[in-house]
Specification:
Length: 516
Amino acid sequence: MIVSKLLTRTLRHVRCQSGAAALAYNSKNVPIEQTKLFINNEFVEAVSGNRLEVINPANGDFICDVAEADKADVDIAVAAARKAVAYGSPWRTMNASERGRLMYKWADAIERDIDYIAALETLDNGKPFTVAQAADIPLVVNTLRYFAGWADKVQGKTIPSDGDTFVYTRHEPVGVVGGITPWNFPLAMFAWKIAPILACGNTCVMKVAEQTPLTALYVAKLAKEVGFPEGVINVLSGYGPTAGGAIASHMGIEKVGFTGSTEVGKLVQEASAKSNLKRVTLELGGKSPSIVFDDCDLEQAVAAAHMGVFFNVGQCCCAGTRLYVQDTLYDKFVERMVEKAQKERILGDPFDASTNHGPQIDGEQLSKILGLVDSGVKQGASLQTGGAQHGDKGFFMQPTVFADVQDHMDISTQEIFGPVMQISSFKDTDEVIERANNSNYGLAAAVFTKNVDRMYHMSTALKAGNMWVNCYNVLVPQSPFGGYKESGFGRDLGEYALSHYTEVKCVSMAVPQKNS
């Protein structure tokens, strides 16, 4: 998911190779292997017997139904996870290097089945097969491998304390971790959560989005195949208020990692506070500014800003939808962005190798986008292109560009989560810093300029967890990702993520005589 020149080159290279794989799959012939809950290394029906429908967003057709977990199923999964992480269990006594080896094997199995997994991701999420195959699933594999390498490197310290004592620290697993993941990058977000959980020796209960459960359930099968012990990995499909709420408030879960909306993130934190004060990390919404100065590399800025909004049809929490362009470059830049949106976004069947712009996830999300677009027109923004639903089948939204956007407008303040770009002009640096920071969100920001002093100044002045300079959406396993303000707290990815999944125990031992 490195949405930059690197991904653009990768997609061009892969389309030739993935074309045959894409042709091998279509919306009618992707076999669905797993539709039950994965608990304690077995696929089981929900206690209630209820099932939920999974819909293809490209055409609105029914794909299948899957087991619908609720509190009773969460209780069973937590019990299995607690047994698996208990003192003296096979998982707790396993060498850390062996934990890493299992994660490497899991990554290898996912890579082996990459075409099928990409097809599943395309089927229930709607993203183009070429993108799922070239970006999403490789990121899953790379994330697991990155954290597999950390498994035997999570370590404490010896501390030269005062007095006749020997003091050291241990980094112990938190215990059972609950993960609640979204529908926009179904398997990638699953991997972002589960990889550090496992590397640090925890067990988990993962609740995946009800719209997109198919890939996580399939890779759960692969986890058992490669040898993960019973109870270490549990995967539930279900709704947020029931299954997700049960995880957030469960007394047997020590930590929750959530990716989703700010509104729901607040509910997760509240549930933690009212239950057992479990640790919480939140990766939430965003309204990220991209700032284009008139000394930028124009082609680079146009390409990056375009992908910063339209990649994954705008269903990115870090999408750079607030685009500020210096007034001396403004008219030319707007013209280029409109031209690019009209000519380069190819809407159509996600299994077609030429498609690069799939549907929104469902009708509810599409309606929200259309409502905000309508508000933009009514509040006086200049609609340059798009602004309507595409076609009469599925949930496709035209790539949309607004110019002359004012900061008070709803499209400039609310997270749209769709392919809608808002362009405003600015005169000088101080003005744009103040405007960019005037948001409840702080997930990401970008600046485009050739001036090194300005790069540094903007990087320190903007309030965002991720700062991109002359690029956008550089998301790799080695680099931490997370936000400021109402975009959440805590970090996914990178070494920084590990700190959320261990407890630091300080051990002090009396000794007859301490010698340095």
